[in-house]
Design brief:
Blueprint: H1 2-16, H2 21-29, E1 40-46, E2 49-54, H3 61-69, E3 73-78, E4 81-88, E5 91-97, H4 104-114, H5 117-159, H6 175-229, H7 236-267, E6 276-279, H8 280-295, E7 300-305, E8 311-314, H9 316-333, E9 340-348, E10 351-358, H10 365-368, H11 394-404, E11 408-413, E12 419-426
Parallel strand pairs: 7-9
Antiparallel strand pairs: 1-2, 1-5, 3-4, 4-5, 6-8, 9-10, 10-12, 11-12
Helix pairs in contact: 5-6, 6-7, 7-11, 8-9, 9-11
Length: 434
């Protein structure tokens, strides 16, 4: 067969590379061309010079193509014509078949004879890699694109203002953590925006409250000053009363300004504290005695103190400010008649507990957690006729001061009535007589 002849020529090509012309001619003459077919011929060339031929070899476009390619060996076909060429040193051998047929056996013979098994294996491995890569790429992209689409949809929801939206992802892969982080981010963002809205609302309430608190004494000061100028207070006694009222209202203005200044300093953390170790029992005794004298008939102050020779580390001046704020709160929001303030203190484990309890109407359960918020003002139930509302800073200031001393402060309604403000401060052990 033609392909068997091709295989024989390929096997001899290495020997021919170093053989002489006569040796190659002799080998070619010994070839048994397939059935001595007229369609098959063989020729030996040196360059473009024909040295030998058998079987009526004729040049053709395939011969020209083979010469242009100038390869050590080659196989070319046009329609039913095939040409095989092999270079042997300075000589080139052409095997020509004018009746070429691509039958199944011949094709496989040619493949087996011309393609290295290693090349076939490499092609198979390459095909397997490409196929596997395609399958894996499709699977991986699906496992990435789908979750990304879920995440992008969530981002769009948040962007459009739907802060309640949360991603639902049932996968157990690494993307589940991303979804959890997204939901946590959305939650924190929602809390931040809600806090900002609440803060804006509180600030508006502050402006309204402060405006009211400032306008009331300013109106009184202006009215009494005009009375003095216009001679309404004609007698020395009336003039003295007018001036005393102006001084009193000026003191009210000064108190409001001082509270605003104190709160602003505490809020930004720039207020200077002078902490020292002192007996909390003695401090409470001193404060309760002074408060009882100051409030007189307006409010009865009672102290139940069991914390003598118990020491805390705090700023005594600012702690007294907290006590004053709580007492003022009880005075403003206590009972209309027989207003009372009970101050209790005792040690419990490693801290001192101090309670300020009035006998007023108390507050709603919803308001308990809001009393210490910035600018929060008590509800109307805690505002008695003829009593001026607070400006919403006293309890907020008190909370910041107590927290500065590593303590806690909270509000509870009494078992029967009234409001309890409960303070805890760390107690210092092992200290005696200061």
């Amino acid at each position: 067969m033609f392909y068997q002849t091709v295989a024989e020529m390929k096997s001899l090509s290495t020997e021919w590379k170093y053989a002489d012309e006569e040796k190659i001619k002799s080998d070619l003459a010994s070839f048994d061309l397939p059935q001595k077919s007229k369609a098959v011929s063989i020729a030996l060339y040196e360059g473009n010079k024909e040295l030998y031929q058998d079987g009526n070899f004729t040049t053709s476009p395939l011969t020209t193509l083979a010469q242009e390619k100038d390869k050590s060996r080659g196989h070319y076909t046009i329609d039913n014509t095939a040409l095989f060429t092999v270079q042997a040193g300075q000589y080139r051998v052409y095997l020509y078949n004018k009746d070429h047929d691509y039958d199944k056996d011949n094709r496989f013979d040619l493949i087996n004879q011309t393609i290295n098994p290693g090349v076939l294996f490499a092609i198979f491995i390459l095909f397997a890699i490409v196929l596997t890569n395609g399958i894996l790429t499709r699977f991986v992209f699906r496992s990435i694109i789908n979750p990304l689409n879920i995440l992008v949809n969530g981002v769009h929801k948040i962007r459009d203002g739907n802060l309640d939206y949360r991603i639902t992802y049932e996968g157990k892969d690494e993307f589940a953590e991303v979804c959890n982080d997204f939901n946590e981010m959305a939650r924190q963002l929602q809390e931040l925006i809600e806090a900002r809205k609440k803060d804006d609302e509180n600030r508006r309430e502050l402006v309204a409250g402060i405006s009211h608190d400032l306008r009331t004494p300013l109106t009184s000061i202006k009215t009494y000053a005009e009375g003095l100028v216009e001679g309404v207070a004609a007698t020395p006694r009336l003039q003295k009363e007018y001036l005393e009222t102006i001084i009193s209202k000026t003191d009210d203005l000064e108190h409001i300004v001082q509270q605003l200044f104190l709160f602003s300093k505490l809020d930004i953390g720039e207020f200077p504290f002078s902490e020292e170790i002192f007996d909390i029992g003695l401090a409470l005794d001193s404060f309760a005695k002074g408060a009882a004298e100051d409030y007189g008939e307006n409010m009865t102050v009672t102290l139940e103190n069991t914390t003598h020779q118990k020491y805390v580390e705090a700023d005594p001046v600012q702690l007294r400010t907290v006590f004053t704020n709580l007492s003022e709160n009880a005075l403003k929001y206590g009972a209309e008649k027989d207003n009372q303030l009970l101050i209790k203190s005792y040690q419990e484990n490693d801290h001192i507990t101090i309670i300020f309890q009035d006998n007023g109407p108390g507050v709603s359960e919803d308001s308990l957690n809001k009393l210490f918020q910035i600018f929060y003002r008590g509800n109307k139930a805690r505002t008695s006729t003829g009593k001026r509302n607070g400006n919403g800073l006293g309890l907020a200031i008190s909370a910041k001061i107590i927290h500065r001393f590593s303590g806690t402060i909270q509000a509870e309604n009494g078992p029967e009535n009234g409001l309890k403000i409960i303070i805890t401060l760390p107690v210092l052990e092992g200290i005696e007589n200061g």
